[in-house]
Design brief:
The chain is α/β, with parallel strands linked by helices. About 30% of the residues lie in helices and about 30% in strands. The chain binds adenosine-5'-diphosphate and magnesium ion. The site of magnesium ion has 5 residues, from helix 1.
Length: about 300
């Protein structure tokens, strides 16, 4: 079934009991074998979407398929095909990591002979904590235990909801290494994060939601390329009292009395034309640096357009 998407979401909407519309007609596919980022500001609806996939939240309308299994028609197969690492950390504090994984394997009906408890604990660097009480684990350790828990039934798809929130940088790195390793082994990975830089580095493809609506879904490279504004910072040979102005510039701003930052729309002009325009105003340029747009620029421009 290599052509089927790992996850397919069609016209998904959710209105909570209080009347809050958390998802509004969201449709997208997650390709098999990808690392897929679901981005959006707080309250955008990311966890709602993931909790619908895990069966923890009932959708209001629309459909979702996981590994080809409709969550309404084939809930057991759909559930067996996905491992979810929830945003909220919740455990029974009296179980040890080893017991927690054994229990989870039992819930998923994984036969004793096929359990990989110690292998999973090793993979998330918790083998020396195998017999410690969960309440003695640090936040980062608990997060990694949740990842191991999501993998006990060897699902082809794993979803991590804000996996690095509250995890220190070193452990974050470790978590990403493990996620990348799972992905190399063929597991499709979906993650939500508000760390744009992380999404940019890790994800092949990114969907952005805001106020419950899908506002973009593209390969990461294309999304980054969507930033239409670029900037050049010019150092000029003499002091200025005001930034040079030109009809073709989006914005020009003095950073100091000889340094100006000029923002332009890359669909309309290129850096060479900006420089020519500045020289045309009788100014001499002694240094140039360019600024590439990153995902943050795209994200901000998309989410602010969506607010209008
Ligand atoms: P995100 O994960 O992107 O931060 P959520 O899916 O948690 O967003 O929340 C989306 C919106 O739905 C928010 O406005 C949130 O307050 C609301 N919401 C989330 N859970 C519930 C709930 N159980 N009942 C009512 N409203 C909820
Ligand atoms: Mg959330």
């Amino acid at each position: 079934m290599s052509e089927n998407p790992a996850i397919s979401i069609q016209n998904l909407s959710k209105i909570y009991a209080g009347g809050k519309q958390a998802l509004d007609d969201v449709s997208f596919d997650v390709p098999q074998g990808s690392i897929f980022g679901l981005l959006g500001p707080n309250g955008a609806g990311k966890s709602t979407l993931i909790n619908i996939l895990s069966g923890m939240v009932m959708k209001s309308s629309g459909a979702a398929r996981i590994w080809g299994f409709d969550i309404d028609i084939n809930p057991r197969n759909a559930k067996a095909s996905i491992g979810i690492v929830p945003q909220e950390i919740m455990f029974d504090p009296f179980f040890t990591p080893k017991e927690a994984l054994e229990l989870q394997a039992g819930l998923y009906g994984v036969p004793k002979a096929r359990r990989r408890t110690m292998e999973l604990l090793r993979a998330v660097r918790l083998e020396d904590k195998a017999d410690a009480y969960a309440r003695t684990l640090s936040g980062g350790m608990k997060r990694r235990l949740l990842v191991a828990k999501a993998m006990v039934h060897s699902p082809p798809v794993i979803v991590l909801d804000e996996p690095t929130a509250g995890v220190d940088i070193e452990l974050r790195q470790l978590l990403w290494e493990y996620v990348a390793e799972l992905n190399r082994g063929g597991v499709t990975v979906v993650l939500t994060t508000h760390y744009l830089e992380e999404a940019e580095q890790l994800c092949d493809e990114i969907a952005i939601i805001n106020h419950g609506k899908l506002i973009a879904k593209k390969p990461t490279k294309e999304l980054v390329g969507m930033a239409r504004e670029k900037a050049v910072v010019l150092t000029l040979d003499k002091e200025m009292t005001a930034a040079p102005t030109h009809a073709a510039f989006e914005k020009a701003e003095l950073l100091s009395d000889r340094v100006v930052e000029i923002t332009y729309n890359k669909d309309r002009m290129n850096a060479g034309e900006v420089l020519a325009a500045v020289q045309g105003l009788g100014l001499s340029i002694i240094d140039v640096t360019t600024k590439e747009a990153d995902l943050e620029d795209v994200f901000l421009s998309l989410t602010s357009e969506n607010m209008k």
